[in-house]
Design a protein that fits this description.
The complex is a heterodimer of chains A (891) and B (90). Chain A contains 34 helices and 9 strands. With 891 residues, chain A is mainly alpha-helical. Chain A folds into 4 domains: 361 residues; 111 residues, no CATH class; 102 residues, Signal transduction histidine kinase, dimerisation/phosphotransfer (DHp) domain (Helix Hairpins, Orthogonal Bundle); 148 residues, Histidine kinase-like ATPase, C-terminal domain (Heat Shock Protein 90). In chain A, strand 6 and strand 7 form a beta hairpin. In chain B, strands 1-2 form a two-stranded antiparallel ribbon. Classes of the chains: A mainly alpha (891), B mainly alpha (90).
Chain lengths: 891, 90
Amino acid sequence: MLSANLLLFVCISYVALLFLVAFVVDRQAQRGRIGWLQSPLVFTLSISIYCTSWTFYGAVGSAARSGLEFATIYLGPTLVFIGWWWLLRKLVRIGTVHRITSIADLISSRFGKSPTLAVFVTLIAVIATTPYIALQLQSVTLSFRVISGGPESGGLNDGATAFWVAAGMALFTILFGTRNVTANERHHGVVAAIAVEALVKLFALIAVGLFAIYGISGGVGDVFSRVSPEFLHANDVFGVRWAALTFLSATAIICLPRQFQVTVVENVDERHLATASWLFPLYLVLICIFVVPIAVAGLSHLPAGSNPDMFVLTLPLSANQGGLATFAFIGGFSSATSMVIVAAIALSTMVSNHIVMPVALKVSQSGHYTSGDVRRLLLISRRVSIAVILMLGFVYFRLTDGSEGLASIGLIAFAGIAQVLPGVIGGVMWRGATRYGALAGLAAGFGIWAYMLLIPSFRAEFAFIEALVSMGPWGIAALRPQAFLGMTVTDPLVHALFWSLAANTALFIFVSLATNPTPLERLQGALFVDVFRTRPGETPGVIHRTAQSEDLFVLAQRILGGEPARLLFEDIARSQGIRSGLPIADDAFIARIERELGGTVGAASAHAMVSQVAGGGTISLTELMKIADETAQILEYSQQLSQKSEELESTARQLRNANAKLQELANQKDEFLSQVSHELRTPMTSIRSFSEILLETPDVTSAEAQRFLTIINAECLRLTGLLDEILDLSFLESGKVSWNLVPVDAESALNRALDSISVLAEKNGVTIEIGERARHVTVMADFGRLTQVFLNILNNSVKYNSAEAPRIEVSSSHRNGAYVVSIADNGPGIAESDSEKIFSKFTRGTGRHEVGSSGLGLPISREILRKFRGDVVLTSNGGPGAHFEVRLPAA
Amino acid sequence: MSESRDPDLRSRKVRDAALVLPFVGAFLLMPPFIRTFASDSYLAGIPVIIVYLFAVWFALILCAWLLAGPLHETMEAESRGASDADTPEG
């Protein structure tokens, strides 16, 4: 035993140290020197308030009673943190973007800033946390009594110890937890103090563990040689309860108000989660690794009947290690106080934001918020809430004094707060979740939890509860709280957890499906679920409200305080491009004000306050649809992307085509030039040679000269004809000709061509047979050009016809609005492969070279006909010879 | 092109691994699988189940530690991307 006075002195010194740390850090934070405080290490250590005195003392007790089961309480959080990428990251991002102040604020804000939900979650949190605070008080008093002896040996009595501890913690929390109401609810002094406490409790437990292994037992081997399978409960521990407890602890690390406070609200940088994802599980495993050795050492070295919950203290005490025992006591004290402080801050924030503020707003509605300073009201309500919450814990502790093992209260509290989980998960993952769904689920889950777990936990104190548990209400056995509908789960916790969460989730889903969200709910739902797709600080212009900047300024001043409000408005004015004076009260500005105020008083209250100034506001449906439409955002992005890539692809395709065309044209041009020079060269050569003969031979007879000159003349005519045709073709192809299409009698054009060719045909001995003729067809064309076309084709048929009895058949028809002239000969015909080639410049069908012809006739004809929207094609008529068809649309 | 695609692929794999890790942990630590190790035997003087439990625990922490670095980088890149995207697009 240690003297109570010495212990008190150590305690008070330690508390003074914590006050000092908090004070110094707060001062530094005010001067902006908090760089080290914003490290991931401090963040992780502050999360370790999860390990309360329930862990510090109770884990060993649990291990002594039920073997490895204690580990589940730390496995759940381990799984949540190594899976941080799933949920925690999203919660932290939402918390940062939407200035969430508590778990109640998260749920209320998600479901349309509903005040009802906020109040409800706050009440659940208070009801579930009060026993937990009582538990901490109990462990402190119990440990104090164990280490200093009871009142009979001069120590304080339990009530007094608990009262002073509660009062001290209230003082600390009020001093450092409610210094300000702004800055997103971050309490640097408190965070620093609990980081120190986290280290103290870890080292204390490790010290006791090492002492248990090496000081009391004979090393690791000795400790574990005493571990029997019966001790570990290895055969029955891995059942439903193992899974249920792991799930429960995983839920607790997310939903407990104090965990939400340190993980989400106090988080300064979401990247710290990356470090905490492994560092916090490491902290947990270090805490756990010595639990079994301490339990084993306690069971084998302490007298039978010793309270296993106090092994951490009684082991060193039994070996007269007063210093170590004091260190262990301080460790337990640390774990209790840090939890209580953070829980009190979290709860007081919730109570003042979600219960006191709405009431104050209602009351001041008539006076239009001019009465009283909101900021002061907020601070006072928080301070009072802290005192009240700690007092509630104290009262609960006095009422149930000593009736429970430490761990069972903790698990009941866990199961209570777990009822928030469906609302949280559904809220941030499912757009369809509605306020009514969340309310129904919460109400059912909470009711069942109270009925099946909370009320039966008082069965020892109250006879009527004992009767209720064993007989059922009004003697109806099917409704017994621990065997509902005759369910034979022996474990009341698993039983209650199953029924409450099943009813909670089912109602949440079904009521959500059956009800429609309000526009504000839809908006918040979209913003929460898609928080990673919305850029921070970007507020969609959905809600349209109007307000006077002065009114907003007055409101902001009342809540944020004069200086911060002025800075905020200056900042906004600057971003609006206004040099001096108040910013323009546009929608974005009002939304930002609401968000900033929400960081202090919670989303629901902020919404109500701003609405008082700015009116309820109309939600623009089109904007809302844009955001709320399930996949609109993703679709928009991916559509834009695919559109861009499609555009690029088609551009590339067009470029490729154009390039191919250009190359082809270049080839054609080269070919054309070589053809032209070739065609020009032949007549030029003969002209040159004949004129040279004439020049160089003096004694040419006049008859010979006459012959030579005739040849020269003919070749000149051929040259001129060729050049004319080339000019004609390039003229046609250049597209510069503006065609004057007039109604033309096509048959008379054909007749003119037939008349013209008859001389040549007679000369070559070709018979022209006129077949069936269309009568009087009008086409849109140019008479001269059309005649030229017919003449060209007839000319070809005459020239290339090498048959013994050359013959040409000409017929025309007018069918289905098309005028078709068919010109067939019985000549050598044109090979299939040449059927398109012959329409190119200078190409003649195979074996048609020798006949004098430029090879431009058909291309020119086709070019002309296409201008008339017609064409000339080579068709196969089955027989020998070439068969051309000229087609024109009849007018 | 291929230079930027490889880190993308890697960060995707890391994110997928981060999503899978808690489920692997739950599988290894939950019944029925954990019952396989609930025997009476000892390993180096320590009950097998304790060795198994803490080995899995430390292994999960190690995996989380290995993933934390790349994930941290991913988040940095994301926040950089966000601030980049904020400025233009008048």
